[in-house]
Specification:
This protein is mainly beta and 180 residues long. Helix content is 10%, strand content 50%.
Length: 180
């Protein structure tokens, strides 16, 4: 089987409107991928910086995946990392600050990936409630995020950027007729 080793870290976040952030991440893969070793999801600690708009997490990612083939054109079945960024308010409540999706590169080596995040915009009433009470609209069905033809219908606003540093090792791809 062709194998992919993903080693690295979820480095941090920048350009979010508030600090006290944490991130939940999930590796989204197609049906023909198998996890040999490592966890396909995780959550960082809460990070805050009083003097800059950058949160540092340095959360480790170590995955070993295998596949017998990649269906589709242009690596549509290639692994992607789905993230949700949350803000922890002074009452200890977690408020969604953004969703993001980044595709793992298809070439071996060291990569720095910027994942641009966004969140849904509700009605004017929803925005007032969000301003005074916190919270805000959330996506009921996260499958929308993975489907570009459905995702474009959402009304959203840009949030911050989450940075990943990953090193990729690809093994046995030429043996299975997969070129990168």
């Amino acid at each position: 089987m062709a194998e992919v080793h993903i080693l690295g870290q979820l480095s941090g976040a920048k350009e979010f409107p508030k600090q006290e952030l944490f991130c939940k991440w999930y590796l989204q893969v197609g049906n023909n991928w198998r996890t040999i070793e490592g966890k396909r999801e995780g959550q960082t600690q809460v990070s805050s910086s009083q003097f800059s708009n950058i949160c540092h997490w340095s959360y480790p990612i170590d995955l070993h995946l295998a596949t017998a083939g990649i269906p589709g054109r242009q690596f549509t079945g290639w692994p992607k990392i789905y993230i949700e960024v949350y803000h922890l308010d002074w009452l200890g409540r977690a408020h969604l600050f953004g969703y993001g999706l980044v595709t793992i590169p298809t070439s071996p080596g060291h990569h720095i990936l910027d994942c641009y995040t966004w969140r849904p915009i509700g009605s004017l009433r929803d925005r007032f409630m969000q301003f005074f009470l916190g919270g805000g609209p959330q996506i009921k069905y996260p499958e929308l995020i993975f489907s570009p033809d459905k995702r474009h219908r959402l009304s959203t606003e840009a949030m911050g950027v989450v940075t990943f540093e990953v090193d990729l090792i690809l093994r046995n791809f030429s043996n299975y007729g997969v070129e990168y």
